[in-house]
Q: What sequence folds into this?
């Protein structure tokens, strides 16, 4: 029974002709042109700066919460599918386990792994709606530099995964999509009016993700420097700098959010 289920999932998530024969081919692949990416980024940044300054009335929570719930549920399911499908591809289609950490030089962006990297890239456009929902709610406390910087720069990172056939992206995809399962699961439940007690897990899991990425990067760099080399090393350099900046910002956010809260609890106990 289990083997039949796995075989069924492989046929649809790995060996389906659309997935198996996928090829990243700018500008023929939809959303793959550099000009479209640049236009999307400029539009996002411009609207993120302009819309909060306009005297728009906040939308009613009765209208906004169902939209937020649907958006969060969609990204929860997409993230779950991407994470599972990439793991399934790694174990059933990757030519060699070595490829999980290091693609051979001049690897072409074709096949199931790159298909799921492409879906991951497209999902980052869908995530930009997060910012619009914040602006429509007029809750500008959530519209932080970290939020806008992360959403904008991650688009460039995902584009480089595909454009440079970047080594190590399969692990980054699985870990990031898994974190987003937790995060958008939390957002979905919150939009339904429930306040889970594990909000801190969302931030903690993001920090763990970045630390883990640096650990596996050491292994990849060793293979690159002392082996035959790894594909997309310049894309990885951008990815590493981006992750380092995000780690610093998330640690600062964690400190500001939870250190103050812990201090308040301590004051209550000692009063």
A:
């Amino acid at each position: 029974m289990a083997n039949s289920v796995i075989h069924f999932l492989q046929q649809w998530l790995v060996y389906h002709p659309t997935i198996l024969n996928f090829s990243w081919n700018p500008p023929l692949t939809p959303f793959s042109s550099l000009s479209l990416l640049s236009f999307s980024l400029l539009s996002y940044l411009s609207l993120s700066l302009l819309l909060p300054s306009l005297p728009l009335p906040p939308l009613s929570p009765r209208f906004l919460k169902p939209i937020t719930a649907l958006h969060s549920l969609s990204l929860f399911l997409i993230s779950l599918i991407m994470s599972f499908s990439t793991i399934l591809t790694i174990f059933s289609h990757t030519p060699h386990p070595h490829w999980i950490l290091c693609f051979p030089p001049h690897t072409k962006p074709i096949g199931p792994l790159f298909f799921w990297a492409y879906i991951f890239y497209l999902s980052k456009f869908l995530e930009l709606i997060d910012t619009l929902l914040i602006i429509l709610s007029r809750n500008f406390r959530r519209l932080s530099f970290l939020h806008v910087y992360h959403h904008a720069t991650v688009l460039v990172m995902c584009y480089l995964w595909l454009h440079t056939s970047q080594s190590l992206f399969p692990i980054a995809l699985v870990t990031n999509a898994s974190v987003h399962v937790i995060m958008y699961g939390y957002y979905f439940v919150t939009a339904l009016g429930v306040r889970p007690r594990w909000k801190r897990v969302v931030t903690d899991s993001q920090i763990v993700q970045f630390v883990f990425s640096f650990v596996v990067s050491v292994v990849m760099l060793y293979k690159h420097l002392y082996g035959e080399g790894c594909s997309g090393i310049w894309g990885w350099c951008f990815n590493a700098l981006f992750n380092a900046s995000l780690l610093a910002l998330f640690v600062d956010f964690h400190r500001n959010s939870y250190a103050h809260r812990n201090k308040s609890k301590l004051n209550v106990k000692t009063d």
In short: Residues 36-265 form one domain. The chain has a mean pLDDT of 90. The chain is about 75% helix and 0% strand.
